Amino acid sequence: MALITQGQKVPFNKDWKFNLSDNRQAIESDFNDLAWDAVDLPHDWAFEAVYSEDAVQGDRGGYKPGGIAWYRKEFDLPKISSTKRVRIDFDAVYMNSEVWINGHYLGKRPYGYISFSYDLSKYLKPRHNVIAVRVDNSHEPSARWYHGCGIYGHVNLVYTDAVHIAKDGVWVATPQITKQQADVVVESEVLNTSSNAVTAEVKAVVLDPNGKKVAEKSQLVKIAAHNKMIQKQSFLLSQPQLWDITAPNLYKVVTTISVDNKVSDKVVTRFGIRTIKWDVKTGFWLNGKNIKLLGVSDHLEAGPVGAAIPDELKRWKIQLLKDMGCNAIRLAHNPETPVFYDLCDEIGILVMDEIFDGWEEKAQQDYGKQAFNDWWERDLRSWLKRDRNHPSVFIWSLGNETKGEVAKDLVRICREMDPYRLTTSGHSGDEEMDVLGVNGASESMKFFEQLPPNKPFVSTEAPHTWQVRGFYRTKTWFRDGYPNERHKPFPCPDLTEKEIFTYYGIKPHDRENRKQFFNSSYDNAMVRVTARKNWELMRDTPWYSGHFRWTGFDYIGEAGYVHGGWPFRAFMGGALDLAGFKKDLYYFYQSQWTQEPMVHILPHWTHPKMELGTEIPVWVYSNCDEVELFLNGISLGKDKPGRKWDEMQCEWMVPWEPGTITAVAYKEGKEILRTSHSTAGVPSQLKLSTTGDECPVVTVEQLDKKGELNPYAENRIHYYVEGPARLLSLESGNPINTESNYGKTSRTTFFGRGRAFLKKTSEKGDINVVVAAICGEKQLMTSNEISIDNKLLTLQGEKKDFDVKIYYSIDGTKPKTLYTKPFLVEQDTTVRAYVYDGQRLLFSMSEKFSDDEGLYWGSVEDSLVVGGGEQAEDAEFNGVKVSTRGNWFNGKGYIDFGKSIGGYVEWYQENDGDAGDVNLAIRYRHAVKDQEGGYLKLTVNGEVIKAKVFFPVTRHGTNYAKSWVKIPLKKGANTIRLTSIENRSPYIDEIVVK
């Protein structure tokens, strides 16, 4: 190991061993871990596992596993004197981590979203050392969305002397700021771990954003043995360069501790100078300017790679949001890893930093249940201390759709540790918070019919809209129906009298409930309000500080509540999909939130089943003065983007005919931009592009012969990587593709696009990627022509001269025919192909073409949904069985209590609005001779609502009926349970909450 300097942080991510099992002997130094997997950190074993309908995280966790795992790392150290200190810093481990060094127990941290450290000094050996980490995710589901498993953050060793600065021990505050000057206060927490009192010099040097020294102070302090002290140093900086979302200027404080003229520790702390003000009537102010918070909410995970997100991909993700016009991110519903805040500081994104989801149990085995009561204060203080230097962090959020007396203590500690930022929450403990944060209730008509709040207000989670990239419906869809008395949604008229699009992600007869279909990209699928209406309300209401839409990106998990469960693995509320592809919604926000001229058309212009003359709503999002639309060179007129919600898009009803549709954008009467879509032919070739350096993102598009994207293409793309790089993941954005992302070399495209996410393993060496596919329409709907294409992409170094030859077959035999040109196939043909580099086989391919493959092309009648509510057979149950006997049940079956007494079925019901009463409809069947009916006990959130709910006998024995009961729902997570109290209980099919 190289010479260690004081205060040095040494990355500790490489060369760990991993095993997904529980073996307590792993703490011993001489334990044999040769059979364990070699991994580098960050690492997420849940993401690397397959999707499984039976996985313990369930639909909330995107059908991923939990379990118990161990990590071990052997390392050598130079001889360290007794006065030296070595600390290990963990950025994040999910969850219940325990750590040992050389067999000595260091401690436990239950919360999976907190950073923590241990002092190793006492137990280190001059040479061979072993660190062991046990991670326990055996109690699941432990979150209401996908969570990673393992050491998914960075790990570092930090070297200091006995007299040193505590972890996160430098706090920089800027209590008074004007245009002319800024007060800067630096507090340094200095520890003396030696057995003697010492006199130390504490020196702080302030560097401006250009690295120029602008202030310096030095003081001598006495610190008793085994003690600590806080040293405060104040500076007055003239003409400060403010941190802003448009100019993220960052200063540094270099704090040095010296004893006997020798440096014992040195810490560099970045900070920004900016003013924040909240006003009841006018909303949010940054640096004296009244601005709207143009925000999104996002969980800690990136769809393409899980929770173990490389730093470069974190930057990629944040920058995509920034380019959309977003200026703020709400961390839902837990802290991020430290590098995330550094990136937001640099890019200029405000962060609503959120610490907890619930202050009590919300998921069955979450932190609220397992550890909150014992750990909340320690975790809260660690979080505040870690994040309070970041200028991007503008407010503390303390909970989400939860309740509890602890709210006042959470706020008290925030004010104690940081008196300069206010507190809020996602509709939790509102009376204690400085800023009123409201989730879904803030998007209803009822909310705006009330008087303005008596506190500053921000919409912490709105709007809730859904859309699948490239998918369209002209009929409006509300999650809970329209009108809904409880939600009071804003109206959104249908775009056409009858539905004009007739393709589906899941065949109608395969859908298990009414939610299992793709949502439209016309901004007409929602809970209560469209994205356009929500923006109009925010823009035109002075006290409306801003919103954090749900969400910025699609994410794995929460697949059941809105989207109906397996095979849906993801939540589709993002402006970008799982692969980071931009949806039409992204361009809507860009048209409203950015100044750089832009223009975007929807939908595409490829409609193989559309009747000629069918009128299609064509929308254009633009921030220019006006837009002119052309079809095959003929002008259809001009339109101007309006300010009313339903006029924000330029809109034309265009009779369908093949060809090219073009939008031309004008400013001050001059054309400045144009964009177009052309009717695409059969997919026949691949187009590659790439971004990124250490973590290249390779985008593949399927084009026709003319180079036009085929928006329905869904062929399997194969990748061969040669050189010092590895595939992290393959992703297309398809929410129902349950193939594993990890450890695969091929994946189908989704609506014409797919991506490969790679990570370089060395800065030297040539990296080349061969990409190939068997291209054609999966259903042979308009053409039975098949092409085989391959492309080469050089990511680093020199381009390799591959001698690619492709052999194929169409009769199931070994591929022997050399591919030279497209060929024809019949229905139900499987094309096989081998891709060679000279004599070396790179990979094999296979693609089936059949009218039963891929997207389902049906009729308008197919839109009739299966089922109407939350299916009983998909809920949690015990002491009962799922039966499929008889007819007329919805979904896959129903719950048969048999002769069980005490058996139950329990549903999860999320309420993103205000607490209150709702009507519960229970769909049942009860056919028992000589009885008037049967009874079940109804409980909500563990409280008995009705000890005996009566279910009258149903006609003819096979008919289903509904029993209605009024029940209370709290904000956030709710559980509804029906329990048998007699040995002949009704059959339960589903529930519907109205």
Keywords:
mainly beta; six-stranded antiparallel beta sheet; 9 helices; eight-stranded parallel beta sheet; 994 residues
List the helices and strands and how they pair.
Blueprint: E1 8-11, E2 16-19, E3 37-39, H1 45-48, E4 67-76, E5 84-90, E6 97-101, E7 104-109, E8 116-119, E9 128-137, E10 155-161, E11 163-173, E12 181-192, E13 198-207, E14 213-223, E15 227-238, E16 251-259, E17 262-271, E18 276-279, E19 283-286, E20 289-291, E21 293-298, H2 311-324, E22 328-331, H3 338-347, E23 350-354, H4 367-370, H5 372-387, E24 393-400, H6 407-417, E25 423-426, E26 436-438, H7 445-449, E27 457-459, E28 477-478, E29 503-504, E30 525-526, H8 531-540, E31 544-550, E32 555-556, E33 570-571, H9 584-593, E34 599-602, E35 615-622, E36 626-631, E37 634-639, E38 650-655, E39 660-667, E40 670-678, E41 685-691, E42 697-703, E43 716-722, E44 725-731, E45 746-748, E46 753-760, E47 767-775, E48 785-796, E49 804-809, E50 817-818, E51 823-824, E52 829-837, E53 840-849, E54 856-857, E55 870-871, E56 876-878, E57 881-883, E58 894-896, E59 904-911, E60 916-925, E61 933-940, E62 943-952, E63 961-969, E64 972-980, E65 987-993
Parallel strand pairs: 21-22, 21-31, 22-23, 23-24, 24-25, 26-27, 27-31, 28-30
Antiparallel strand pairs: 1-10, 2-3, 2-4, 4-9, 5-8, 5-10, 6-7, 6-9, 11-12, 12-15, 13-14, 13-16, 16-17, 18-19, 19-20, 29-54, 32-33, 34-35, 35-38, 36-37, 36-39, 39-40, 41-42, 42-46, 43-45, 43-47, 44-46, 47-48, 48-51, 49-50, 49-52, 52-53, 55-65, 56-59, 57-58, 59-64, 60-63, 60-65, 61-62, 61-64
Helix pairs in contact: 2-3, 5-6
